[in-house]
Amino acid sequence: MKVNKTNIAKIKAKKGFICDMDGVIYHGNKLLPGVKEFVEWLKTEEKSFVFLTNSSERTPKELQEKLSRLGIEVDQSHFYTSALATATFLDSQHPKGSAYIIGDAGLINALYNVGYTMNNVNPDYVVMGESKSYSFDRIELAVNLVIKGAKLIGTNPDISGPIENGITPATKALIAPIEMVTGRNAYFIGKPNPLMMRIAVKKLGIEPEDTVIIGDRMDTDIIAGIESEIDTVLVLSGITDRETMKSFPYQPRYILNGVIDIIDEGCTMYE
User: Fold this and answer.
1) What pTM was estimated for this model as a whole?
2) Is 219 one of the catalytic residues?
């Protein structure tokens, strides 16, 4: 792609970087090209950065360990997930409540840490995140709990996510049967919900005009940045390609093949 050094310089001049993970940093257990160099650049240039992921499966500690296995050392404080945002939201709405959870360790631990108890009889909330334990029996129980009055929460509105050999269903797809059967719409906490972006900007300690968000999804990452008045970078290393991008009524400020383009100056910009 054509190099625009002036606009690349604008990205590099940013003081704060909000980075998605799936499709930006890795696919499954495969590190994407140039990521190690990009993270080293962030540290060398003393940029403020946070990995802001809609995935709810892993705890920040598990994400830190995953990157470590892939050869990247980053402090645990640089990670924030939709599971943590969901726990913060529920704690503010109904402190010390209870939930029936369909999700993995990241979501279960986040809710437990804010004082929530697990309840499959009469919970305050049914909470759905990505999960390998998804099953008909669990969906059937969730449907009936919602019908009885439990409020329905989704950790994020992603329909799918990238994996090493393709894509996988994500929270919005997994929660759809519960919505359809009960007639109740879930409330989704993750990007583009402003809750996630406010937390990310607060963690960075950088003004929005000095911040950029890097993501692979138009419907979460890019719109979240636009609505938060943060410059947006779409990478084509994840779920979105150029044709898909054209179908949206809004566009990213910048387009990259991947984060390595920030280092080797190989990007095309949308003004």
Assistant:
1) 0.89
2) no
